[in-house]
Amino acid sequence: MRQGSTRSASRFCSGRRASILLACIAALQSASATAAAASTSSADSAPPASLTPGLVQATLGLALVLAVIWAAAWLLRRVAPAGGSSRSPIKLIATQAVGQRERVVLVEIADQWLLLGVAPGHVTALQTLPKTTLPDPENRSPLAPQFSRLLALAKGKRT
User: Fold this and answer.
1) Measured between alpha carbons, how far is 124 from 105 in angstroms, rounded to an integer?
2) How high is the mean pLDDT in each 10-residue block of the chain (159 residues)?
3) Are strands 103-109 and 112-119 parallel, antiparallel or unpaired?
4) How far apart are CA 108 and CA 90, in angstroms?
5) Which one in 36, 59, 80, 147 has a CA-CA gap of 20 to 30 Å to 73?
6) What are the structural domain ranges in the chain?
7) What burial class does residue 111 get, using C-beta atoms within 10 Å of its C-beta: 0-12 exposed, 13-18 middle, 19+ buried?
8) What is the spatial distance between Cα 92 and Cα 124, in angstroms, rounded to a whole number?
9) DSSP letters of 87-153?
């Protein structure tokens, strides 16, 4: 019984959809016939309008808006530098993410460096260090050559 009732319901829905579709097509045909009649009567009095002036006006308007946005961003960078004031006694030296929302931050205050752990809701002082210079990343021994040497050594032992 259920299958028969679903079939009749689907026939009803498809029949209803078809009647709605036919009504929409009829409405579109009558609207297009009305528009065609209106255009033939107005075509005798005025030539068809060109899209070029409207397109040029829209393009120039868009260009003007983009230029204003670019100028505002440039002015904002010039007036308010992102690094903050150079006269500030607190300077951010380095930061490293250690988790999704946790960071370790190295901050310079006077002649000291503070190593801070920053997490949502609290900041923890991890260590206080004397102010020194940071090591150059180029002077560190790279691990890639060591790894490739160890990998070649491991392959040599297996064969």
Assistant:
1) 10
2) 48 60 72 64 59 89 95 85 67 87 89 90 88 64 65 69
3) antiparallel
4) 6
5) 59
6) 1-39, 50-80, 90-133
7) exposed
8) 16
9) T-SEEEEEEEE-SSS-EEEEEEETTEEEEEEEETTEEEEEEEEE--PPPPGGGSPPHHHHHHHHHHH
pTM: 0.36
- Counting other chains too, the contacts that 139-143 makes at CB distance below 8 Å and 24 or more residues apart are none
Q: Both ends of the chain: CA-CA distance in Å? A: 73
Cβ-Cβ contacts under 8 Å for 58 (sequence gap 6 or more): none
Tabulate helix, strand, coil % of the chain (nearest 5).
55, 20, 25
